[in-house]
TrEMBL record:
Subcellular localization, as worded in the UniProt entry: Cell membrane
InterPro entries xref list: MetI-like, MetI-like_sf
Family: Belongs to the binding-protein-dependent transport system permease family.
Top-level taxon: Bacteria
Main location class: membrane
Keyword Transmembrane helix: yes
GO cellular component: plasma membrane
Residue ranges of every copy of the ABC transmembrane type-1 domain listed in the record: 67-247
Membrane topology annotation: Multi-pass membrane protein
Annotated source species: Pseudonocardia broussonetiae
Protein name as annotated: ABC transporter permease
Short name of any one Pfam family annotated for the protein: BPD_transp_1
Example GO biological process: transmembrane transport
Length: 261
């Protein structure tokens, strides 16, 4: 019984036509338009009204004033967290001593909700870009760090021993042996961190912002401009999907060997 049910579920999943996945979003958008027109609620404007507002406001004013600054903070925060997480994760994965020293502190910090750091970051760093990037880095770094650590520990010991026999230093072993072997795990961590970075970008812009998608969202919420709010939500949804698709394409191209290993 326990082995039959998963098999049936798998056969059922593969039997679904691929067009179903494309039809469902279209159906949801059509339901949104219908509900907005029939319901007449100010809290749920029709999709056509939201798209009209998007076309009127976003090109190019909102894109230049809000979208591009958010993307810049997202990129700096994500890349900074990636570098910190990979370097620290590889070091911890290669050294049990370092792991013993840092684990209690890192476990404490990892357990903190990233959003809870926002008030502290405001007090310490003010309301500028440094605070917003620090919040993004804090939210993103731990998924990368944990996966980099696990990837480094999964490296076969004989590879490391062989590298030592050839006289490689610890830095060279990390760069030429451990890092390539840990790349699939690191990439999985980066994939998890990608949507978190987008979320933390918006969260960091909710307080004391002068621009950015989070600022745009809250400022129009305070003005009770519901269609404008929905344009920001739509843009964030599309942006998240584009980032994920772009990362998947890069991952497939760079790490194609890992899928056949």
């Amino acid at each position: 019984m326990t082995t039959t049910l998963p098999a049936r579920a798998s056969r059922s999943g593969t039997a679904l036509p691929r067009w179903v996945s494309a039809v469902l979003p279209v159906l949801l958008l059509a339901l949104w338009e219908l509900a907005g027109r029939v319901g007449g609620s100010v809290y749920l404007p029709p999709l056509s009204k939201v798209l009209g507002r998007f076309a009127r406001d976003w090109f190019p004013d909102v894109i230049v004033h809000d979208l591009l600054p958010s993307l810049a903070r997202f990129a700096v925060g994500f890349l900074g967290a990636a570098v910190i997480g990979i370097v620290l994760g590889l070091a911890i994965g290669m050294s049990r001593t370092l792991d013993d020293y840092l684990r209690p502190t890192l476990e404490f910090l990892r357990a903190l909700p990233a959003v809870a750091i926002l008030p502290v970051a405001v007090f310490v760093l003010g309301l500028g870009n440094a605070m917003r990037i620090a919040v993004i880095v804090f939210g993103v770094v731990f998924p990368v760090l944990v996966n980099a650590t696990a990837g480094a520990r999964a490296v076969r010991p004989e590879r490391v021993d062989a590298a030592r026999m050839f006289g490689l230093s610890r830095v060279d072993i990390a760069r030429r042996v451990v890092l390539p072997s840990a790349l699939p795990m690191i990439s999985a961590g980066l994939r998890v961190a990608l949507p978190i970075a987008l979320i933390m970008t918006v969260v960091s812009e909710l307080v004391g912002g002068q621009n950015g998608l989070g600022f745009y969202l809250t400022s129009h919420q305070q003005m009770f401009d519901i269609p404008a709010m929905f344009t920001a939500v739509l843009v964030l949804g599309v942006l998240g999907n584009l980032l994920n698709a772009g990362y998947s394409a890069v991952e497939d191209r760079v790490l194609h060997w890992a899928k056949h290993a």
